[in-house]
Amino acid sequence: DVKVTQSSRYLVKRTGEKVFLECVQDMDHENMFWYRQDPGLGLRLIYFSYDVKMKEKGDIPEGYSVSREKKERFSLILESASTNQTSMYLCASSLEDPGANVLTFGAGSRLTVL
Amino acid sequence: KNEVEQSPQNLTAQEGEFITINCSYSVGISALHWLQQHPGGGIVSLFMLSSGKKKHGRLIATINIQEKHSSLHITASHPRDSAVYICAVFMNYGGSQGNLIFGKGTKLSVKP
Hints:
By secondary structure, chain A is mostly beta strands.
């Protein structure tokens, strides 16, 4: 069964901490995405990557960075966590762009920043 | 301005009922996705379509490109269908290739 695995389901961090959210896919997909989901706002794209070492900003990249050193792994980094980054974070991947292929999502990482 | 609008926002049905969830969008698209999110967070892709109709089990998705509208139908609904259903469109412009635009979701609750 194809999978997108997110390293942590629940995290609690303090304001100012550096936070790493890891995502690994086993489908040899080119595209990987990080979204955040907040009540009433739906899913919003933070960053995506269409190839190793390539990244593009999404709608809300401020306060985040990403890393894709290997095809299967896409990391989301919060350099200095803030309370307004408390959210559900969802990783997804697709073989090609979402105009041609379905997305496969991870189970999500719920981050609380105190 | 929301580019993807779903209706209704909330829907309660009795087991066995036929359910329709609607999605309207305002710009040209190359594909539309229907997603299902159960309590706990995980999202599953149900359909991706760019024209016509697709069917999988009790689920049917249709799209009318001219009217910029899609519907998701569930026949013979069951309590296990209770979830949030999300519509997402892939815009037909030469911008960011990653940019799916999501609706805010329709929360469905099916009572036994």
